[in-house]
Amino acid sequence: MTEITGLLRRDVLKRLGLVAVAAPGLSLLSACATGGGSEEGGTDVASDGDAKNPFKVDAAKPLNVVIFKGGLGDDYATQVHEPMYVTAFPGVKIEHEGIVEIGKALQPRFSSGTDIPDVVANSGTDLMDTGALAEAGHLQDLTALWDAPSVDDPAKKVRDTIMPGAVEAGLVAGKPYLLPYVSTTYGLWYDAELFKAKGWTPPKTFEEFKTLAETIKAAGLTPFAYAGKNASYYAYWMILISAAKIGGNKVLLDIDNLVDGAWTNPAVEQAAAAWAEINTKYSDKSFEGLIHTEVQTQQNQGKIAFYPSGSWLENEQAPSTPKTFKYGLAPTPSVSSADAMPYEAVRVAAGEYYFVSAKGENPQGGMEYFRQMLSKAGAKGFTEKSGSLTIVNGAAEGLTLSPGLTSVFAAQQAAGQNVVTTSLFENWYKELETELRRQTNNLMYGRNDAKTFCAEMQKAADKAKEDAGADIQTRAS
Amino acid sequence: MRQGRYPFIIGFLAIPVVLYAVFVIGPYVQAFQIALTKWNGYKAPEYVGLKNFRDLFEDEAFTSALWHHLWILITLPLATLVIALFFSFLLNVGGGAGKSGTMRGVRFSGFYKVIFFLPQVLAVAILGVLFQAVYRPNESGMLNGLLAKVGVAPVQFLNDPKLALWSIIGVVVWQGVGFYVVLFSAGMSSIPKDVFEAAAIDGAGRFTLFFRVTLPLLWDTLQVGWIYLGIAAFDMFAIVQVLSVDQGGPDNSTTVVALEIYRQVFRYSELGYASAMGVVLFFMTLTFAALTLRVTRRERIEF
Amino acid sequence: MKTNAETTSTDLPALPADAQPVRKGAASGPGGGKPAAKVASGVFSGLSHVALAVWALLVIVPIVWTFVAAFKTNAEIFGDAWTLPASWHFDAWGRAWSDANIGRYLLNSVFVVTISTFLTMLLGAMAAYVLARYEFRGSKLIYFMFVSGMMFPVFLALVPLFKVVQNLHVHNTYQGLILVYVAYSLPFTVFFLTAFFRTLPTSVAEAAFIDGAGHMRTFFQIMMPMARPGLVSITIFNVIGQWNQYLLPIIIVPADQDKWVLPQAIATISTSAGYRQDWPALMAALSMAIIPVIIVYIIFQRQIQAGLTAGAVK
Fold it and tell me: Which N-terminal residues, if any, form the signal peptide (chain A) (predicted)?
């Protein structure tokens, strides 16, 4: 305790400048906090085609990088991307912040227009509303980045070195504001070793699914489970993917575009009914009270057969996965033989959004940081550190891939052109998304039937449309 | 009255009032202004008058939150105070009659008070993690682990819409009881012995003593406790956020106004709408406190 | 050492004059014979102990369970809740200490709460004293202004508050955290202490004035010592409240992890333990957060109870 009293004596006097601090505060009372800066965006950043420094970064300016410290950690930034940036501009200062609750920490900084970070990994359960950020002119238009020469091959533009659809996935109100850096494949995850030992194969249709589930149940496992407490969206992904498989990607486009009756589309109702049947018959109601890591750990312990998730799962679970457990990915089963898409179709989405602040001190630096991230070395390092694949083509070459990522590649090969599109309404209309979480649990745990689910969601979508008014967002593909 | 009165008053009030005006009143006054606007926190707010307040009462989540506050307002103070009274009664007069007919507390009552008060010093963040383990809906939960041993199927404390809110209120009661036990014990021990003795000579039993003597004398303390707990009932934010399924679920069965405000601010960037909710919450709390004080005053006159 | 309880019992105001003795006729007649009463009394005492012991267990068990869980493996934590760990090893504690930096956050919390509680008490007592004992224009308004702060949901003020903190350049600093803690603790402190100062007898202060003591001296040398019971209890309130404050630090010191306080750290650790799958380390971190608080509480429990006593029996 002596240390503290020492501190006290030294600091109290310094910190007690109360009167001096508070007096100027009076004038603040009349100054409204709702200023928030001008609505004009920041600087226009252009690329002059220089392969070394296309955005004319001022190496004397520090770069403030905020990374979401969640499932991917932030080692990829501190140990790969930031050092690359420093190598490109020796002596440059990087201010790194690893934050879990992005919105709580950053939103006040953006709204007050002070201390704005240059690069933000906007992710986690507490991410910021990019629609609102874009509207206020906080997001840097990334057109110049996509058109800049790539780090690995200056003859190629950056946009030509990444997976198709990635630029589009980063559109907000029709402008390329976001960098969706991670390529994620979705489906049902299972323990390939266990299945081999038991002689089980992932089902190709829901009929097979139910038959296999009976067998699995008899073997003493829970056939299917998701975590209702904080990850109900894992379940609605399955419903949406199945809906797209039944009726084609247009079903999901209609939902994103808030088309009248998009949710009452028979394809959505069929998909909802199919998944609700699986969860009410072949799962357990206790899973509604667990968080995702708890359910995932149970799967690692051999208690759960199928778990719906994205390809980050294997890395997230690495610490508690036994050596004998080998992650495998299966596409969602076909609902009927009349489905528009084949069984092999999977959702591959560019996600995990990063943005550069237009009103930050150093947007040029932010763009250059992105260009480094999108180099093969940057992407490879990211995959090594985080266990997730990126949108950068061919970046995983030469890496020894884990069983899970190997099965992801195999699934992508099998799917070919049959890719289920990603859903953008989740980011566009947050209230609609919250309602969907609620209604998904109501459906999956037997409180509502599929018809009610669709009707409730349609009501919420209509409300979203009314609230959005002129700000409604659209996508063509 | 005396010389130097005003310099003294101003000197003593200046710093607290300025500090308070700058950090508390200022922001809140602005919050009232913001409640009349549509504002996403980034660009200039747009004045919409009372529209936010009109929308509020069509907002299903908000109206169910209001109902929850009503239930919490009734059950939380009642449960906490009744349990606390019961225990302080046992602690102070549960030991039977001592020499000369006075009532004694049970042995180890000091130890019990120390233990009971313990939850008060735990932060809500800690409480949340603790009770996740207590309520876990399978045999790895403390409660369901016990139930499993006697062959009862696991109870879905936090994920049955009918149980969830009560389970969460249970945590708040668990935390609060000890505080009021200490408070009431203090009140009881300050009641002069001769009051008890007089009553005992009249042949009053232990329970008569409690209801006829102890309770009326603790009336003031009870009122204070009721106000504290009532104000707490309008908050509940942290505990609901940490413990509930899907933050306020399942199916909005545990949501509270504070959580809806939080959601509007941090998820939907609807700062104006959130402020309107805050204004409603403010007036509800104010009304509650004013009513309670009114009732208190009337009780005092009768009493 | 003399406890507060002994000193305060004499300061207690007398009971309200209208406190009722038992109404005539309400009392039941004498019970059965003496032996029966004794037996009944013994049974009652036994039952009392059972009830009290059950509640004591309800309080202790979850906390002890957490300590024990810090020694378990992930698999054991998700197994039967009522089994002991197969082996008692301290790895998780090491991980919690080194990775989660609990020690640092503890010290931060102690530092911030010590200063801010002291300032809260000083400023709160000054304001409450003036509001309670002096008549002047606007005193009602100032009092109401302070008290109304008790009813306001804090995070409604977040964005404007952040703006203020920014403009004063105390964002991400201890100063900012302390100032905001003090400001937000004032309503309850002023409310409570104003009521308390009103209950103190005026004669002593009058006498002091006649002796020629100034306002300042009267306050610091006479009123403050007299108000000690009230001051102690509200100090306890503030220490507990500020120690457990969760929302304000997230707004004031979001970025600078070196300045984080304990609840903020615990919340973050619990989310990231969720991400990182290290449940034993989470339990160890929780235990480390709980143990010092419990130790301090045990040391000061007499003062805490005495303080509450003083505050309760106004």
Answer: 1-33
